[in-house]
Amino acid sequence: MSENNIERISGRATDELRNVSIKAGVIKNADGSALIEFGKNKIMAAVFGPKEVHPKHMMVSDRAIIKCRYHMMPFSTDTRKRPNLSRREIEISKVIREAVQPAIIMENYPRTAIEIYIEILQSDGGSRCAAINAASTALADAGINMRDLVSACAAGKANGQVVLDVDDQEDKTGEADMPIAMLPNMDLITLFQLDGNLSKEEFDQALELAKIGCNKLYNLQKDALSEKYFNENNGKEEE
Amino acid sequence: MSENNIERISGRATDELRNVSIKAGVIKNADGSALIEFGKNKIMAAVFGPKEVHPKHMMVSDRAIIKCRYHMMPFSTDTRKRPNLSRREIEISKVIREAVQPAIIMENYPRTAIEIYIEILQSDGGSRCAAINAASTALADAGINMRDLVSACAAGKANGQVVLDVDDQEDKTGEADMPIAMLPNMDLITLFQLDGNLSKEEFDQALELAKIGCNKLYNLQKDALSEKYFNENNGKEEE
Amino acid sequence: MSENNIERISGRATDELRNVSIKAGVIKNADGSALIEFGKNKIMAAVFGPKEVHPKHMMVSDRAIIKCRYHMMPFSTDTRKRPNLSRREIEISKVIREAVQPAIIMENYPRTAIEIYIEILQSDGGSRCAAINAASTALADAGINMRDLVSACAAGKANGQVVLDVDDQEDKTGEADMPIAMLPNMDLITLFQLDGNLSKEEFDQALELAKIGCNKLYNLQKDALSEKYFNENNGKEEE
Amino acid sequence: MPAVKKHRIVDSITLDSIMSSLSDSKRIDGRGLLDYRDIEIETNILKDKTNGSAKVKIGDTEVWAGVKVETANPFPDTPAEGVMTCNAEMLPICSQYIEPGPPDEDTIELSRVSDRGIRESGMIDVSELCIKEGELVYSVYIDVAVINEDGNLFDAVAYAGTAALLGADMSKFTIEDDEVKMLEERQKLPIKSLPISTTFAKIGDKIIIDPNADEQEIASARLTLVTDENGKYVSAQKGKPGGFTFDELKELSTISKDKGEEIRNKIKEAVENGA
Amino acid sequence: MPAVKKHRIVDSITLDSIMSSLSDSKRIDGRGLLDYRDIEIETNILKDKTNGSAKVKIGDTEVWAGVKVETANPFPDTPAEGVMTCNAEMLPICSQYIEPGPPDEDTIELSRVSDRGIRESGMIDVSELCIKEGELVYSVYIDVAVINEDGNLFDAVAYAGTAALLGADMSKFTIEDDEVKMLEERQKLPIKSLPISTTFAKIGDKIIIDPNADEQEIASARLTLVTDENGKYVSAQKGKPGGFTFDELKELSTISKDKGEEIRNKIKEAVENGA
Amino acid sequence: MPAVKKHRIVDSITLDSIMSSLSDSKRIDGRGLLDYRDIEIETNILKDKTNGSAKVKIGDTEVWAGVKVETANPFPDTPAEGVMTCNAEMLPICSQYIEPGPPDEDTIELSRVSDRGIRESGMIDVSELCIKEGELVYSVYIDVAVINEDGNLFDAVAYAGTAALLGADMSKFTIEDDEVKMLEERQKLPIKSLPISTTFAKIGDKIIIDPNADEQEIASARLTLVTDENGKYVSAQKGKPGGFTFDELKELSTISKDKGEEIRNKIKEAVENGA
After folding, report:
1. Number of domains in chain E
2. Best interface-test mutation with F: which of A29, A72, A97 has the largest number of F CBs within 10 A?
3. Which residue among B30, B80, B122 sits closest to E93, beta carbon to beta carbon?
4. CATH number at residue E116
5. Inside any domain, residue E24
6. Residue range of the domain that includes E189
7. ipTM associated with this complex
8. Of A62, A210, A211, C69, which cross-links A155 as Cys (Cβ 3.0–4.6 Å)?
9. pLDDT tens sequence across B107-147
10. What is the value of pTM for the model shown?
11. Which residue of F233, F245, F250 is in closest CB contact with C188?
12. Chain E touched by A212 (CB under 8 Å)
């Protein structure tokens, strides 16, 4: 799949991601946190909980409730964004929550809330997928019981060719963008969106490419978590 | 009173209404509902309740509370209306609630709420009166105990002459508009507004005309309710 | 300190206030109230409480909570002010509450709220100081137990000279404004702000001047309270 | 859905005393059914920041009004007309029953009825508020603050708003070579009439004028009628969840005209004194 | 943080009956897994105030759409393009579970997905909505009201919006001597394609099409796929906190195309009847 | 009425330990009363979307600032001046005590004090932010995000904002034949001075500098003093419901100047390293 017909603007192979780095445990006051740099995206996710539910009437007796907010800083975009939550941010908050929730073993935390806060400090194409990777890493960092990590990546079409992880430059002439999130060990796609124009063949091809991308992200997430664990243990030994 | 001095633009007699049709039971999920077409007005009213009161502190121990919202769809007006509730809509919601409430035997439903929702799908002159006719029909359709129906109609002055049910075209050069709502069997006027310019004689004359109009509406409301009842019974007999 | 080098636009001495008058007990429905005229400022303050706390979760078991709102009427400013609370009004509400609170013996009123409402009917320079003088007088008028009155006044710099109570005309070319509030009998400064440009010497000099001003205000507050008490007693004797 | 406001609590002693007075066709404060309380009107009380102002007391009800005249672009559909807005605000200082916050439905009704009373009477000729067609018009803001609440705000707000307008002035402009220039001299607003509001309340089968806060609270229905100098009815609003009969409406409309005439003279006098 | 909406309550009898039907690959209302309910489409139902309108019923779900075409200044970064906005509103008349108020996150998602379905398919050519570059463009508003809620709003809103657009018309303008003039004649909107939405729900391991309100509530995941006349996929949205396997997505994409073709013909027919 | 914020909970062990340290003129973390925690400043950390940026850590407190320079119409009353706005935001990631939502009164105070510190010091010459008088000016936005909260946000936000401004650049324009044209070259912002904020807290009768979150919570009063390069006091704000004596204010003003000088050099150095 990685044999190129047309060269991508960035020089990447069709199944090649932009540069990605993930770091867990970056915010001291949070129960769990992660910083992801994904292309030019710089995104922090923090998890608080399990904690008391406010307001009380939202409490559920047999499981945790999950709250999620995706928020862009005013300086994160090309032209300054107004500080209040836009309709786009509200929708993305919802789809991210629904993408991450199936991985959380909510029944282990009855009558509590688990809060996921995502802050976009610098935005680039694919910020919702980047955010999911950060959020899922932050959940694991918080020690929340999970069935699997949630890994996310977009496939799309640019210059007539189906490619992994469409970037901003490709997006200008891009024909389609299909972000997906999945639980890699459970073959379950929990975020799926599409905007653009794909034939049936391209649709199936994009799905396969996105799967490859998600698996790459999965490994980066695991690395980030084990690196933090290793360092912490290291730190403890040094005491 | 129906002898014309000057012909009305619409050709109507001074005590003649625009075309009116009322249909009860049009919204399946509501406890009661009605659709009124009144001139070009197309208005739906739905009633929910008696039901639990939210928030709790609004509950009254010896009677029901009545909520009412009058709302115009963005496409209902000449130029698109912004979706949020305007001050005008808030005021009309209040005067409609106060017009309808005296007809409801609220003490039969202690500690409950009765909700009236009015949606203006196409607006024309006299929409508040049309809305009251629909709301009152919907209340009866919901089986809420009532002292009387509430029937509403405006009188006004156009081309120097006091007339019933001023329409949009007359309103452009209209000198006064006086919407009223009444409980026809109790001689009680529960909505009364006036904007314009009327002498004492015209004021009294307009009151009389509006009374005639309300009685016509009262019959149309009764017809709508019995038609629904008849059809429903019919349906049952056929089973 | 009152020897002038340069004459002030208003002809006032460096340590001279604008005209000030305070009247207590001006709003019948309030538990305590005061009207202050300070230069062109016309400001009313009203106090309600001790009263029940809403919402309940804000109640504190061993003392009263203090609420404070500083609000400008649309007609109080040079160009009409929009009716909703601006960020400036929210900040001033906070600093006034924090200036007045240390004078209130809150532990005498557990589980209650004391509400202070300040309405700017005509604004001029120094409105936050004028408001504090009115609020403090209204608290005393309401019979709230207090450690001391709170008296407020600004010093500043205009035409190169440190002066008391900078007025609007001076403010246009003013180099600094330093509003302070204090508990005169406790040597405690509870509001302190500065905007402008002061050397260390000017800073200390302005502090001293402001102290003089606060003491003058303190006497005016006491006069207003005793006048109301005297008149009330008078009134009673006449009965 | 607009908030249903917290209601004033009228204790049973007050209630009984209102009812027993009314059964003798008297009021709790000794007034007759159709007597206003004392009305005090003072204009020009906020000279430094407003173009016009007034303070009105009806008994213990007190409101202040300020008029600001600014310039603005006209609305596209009325390029040769100025703009007039009347807004009433319940200040939290006025009563223990008022919480600060966005206006509730009662306050919105009060604002809108006050606004219509001025607008529908043609009190201000908006065509004379045009400075340059399609480009610049006067924008007149009438803001009324309720300082102390003891009933009958509809009348108090109306009197304060109209008195402030009557006493107000505004800049004068001239157009030279297509350019708008402000002149030194000032002018009165283009006032064409003086509408007067009168407000009734129905308690049981009795109808009273100028209800105080307790009477207003227990009334089943309220009626505000606005008349102009020519004895014409220009605006009306029924409030509260009750009603009036046809005969009552006809009778009240007659009373409204007579009472209105008295109050109109009071306002004119106050404006002359304040000038 | 967007409000977490109050959920529909599905009683245990209904739940059991849905589940036992599904275990026989049947629906509670007798449908097969991949059968739509009856779809009724009527256009031109609000002739007096809209440029186009439609009513759509899918079973007991009912929505009304109105199109308004106005003129506006273009956005600075797209001076030669018109503006298109699609907005859905849950009216409180539609269900006991809807409270009036600002749109919750479900309604915002519904609006945005409907908007993208139209936008991404290129249904309207926004470059043909330009009247005068940099100065004046058409602004097309599609507002959709949910009148009665019984599931599958994503499809109902999409069908109503597109049917209203197909039947809509707008003013014609000409430019003479750099001045824009409105002509008497009217024209259709620049419609380039007819995207069709299909919506699936997953309950247990069964996947159904066109879920009703109860089915939708208990489903673990929802999928909306929008296809155009050329069989291309133009928009998609997964909803609810569950997921689909890769194989399921591939299979549903095939079904979506076939069902879409049927429904596209229904809409075309309805628009012809309504014209 | 602005919300009264939920307060940080300081447990009794921490409280005792702060108090007993203070009685020995020590801090809970070993610092002296007038010692700052370690201050780390890094600039140019968000190169791709901002015109200038900085990250500041004071102990465990961390804030990020981004500067955006856009163009805008000037305000009518200042046609030859650009616009500068500084805004601070408490992100919900920064602390368990912060809920997402509109800014509470503490955050509004933080924003406004930061803004005044920059504005009143004349740090930016707004007259040099004019591109074409009456038509086009620069609009400088300084947005500061609180990433982790451990006290003394007033100083952290101020340092991040000023460091981001010092390192920022913006487009250059020229006017040819009355037309504004953007040039290729870029320029620094018109920075005239570097104001430095220092913040004190009073616990019992002890006064400390740079309070951490627990110290700040139990303090009776807070004082922020801003000084410029010439040792002038340009801005001040007392916070919390307590007070200072006259002698304390005079003493703290002297300390503020000396500490400010140290920190000013740190910021200059960081900006040079980041360039």
Report:
1. 1
2. A29
3. B30
4. 3.30.230.70
5. yes
6. 3-193
7. 0.94
8. A210
9. 999 999 999 999 999 999 999 999 999 999 999 999 999 99
10. 0.95
11. F245
12. no
